[in-house]
């Protein structure tokens, strides 16, 4: 169950330990995802049981989004951007389309051409991550990670 069911994010106190736990989990998810992309081309990867539906919904709500381009964080986190993303994410809060922890924070690369790094990574909610990474994977934009890892493995053998 999501923490937002227990804490009003608008009035939540700033708990340092809670923030550290969120950060640890986000970094773990980031590491696991990268490791998966090194072992399997993104174009062959399914992130959820609803990938097709999420991708179609994403394309209909964000028709101008280009998964190959770097994300404009200011636009994404503007008042209008936040509202549009909130509406998108809420479709996965409950019912048959429910995605566990749909609004949990996670890390996203600004560009599919980059590895995770301090300046190349932004903090987003899970549904933003899923929508963008599913679009990138379907477009083959993350396959370079697998190809690069395979070349490195070949050099070592």
UniProtKB/TrEMBL annotation:
Full protein name: Protein PBDC1 homolog
Chief location category: cytoplasm
Source organism (scientific name): Exophiala xenobiotica
Polysaccharide biosynthesis domain ranges (all copies): 18-147
Family: Belongs to the PBDC1 family.
Gene3D superfamilies: yst0336 like domain
Keyword Cytoplasm: yes
Location(s), subcellular: Cytoplasm
InterPro entries to which the protein is assigned, alphabetical: PBDC1-like_dom_sf (IPR023139), PBDC1_metazoa/fungi (IPR008476), Polysacc_synth_dom (IPR021148)
Alphabetical list of PANTHER family matching this protein: PROTEIN PBDC1
This protein's UniProt keywords: Cytoplasm
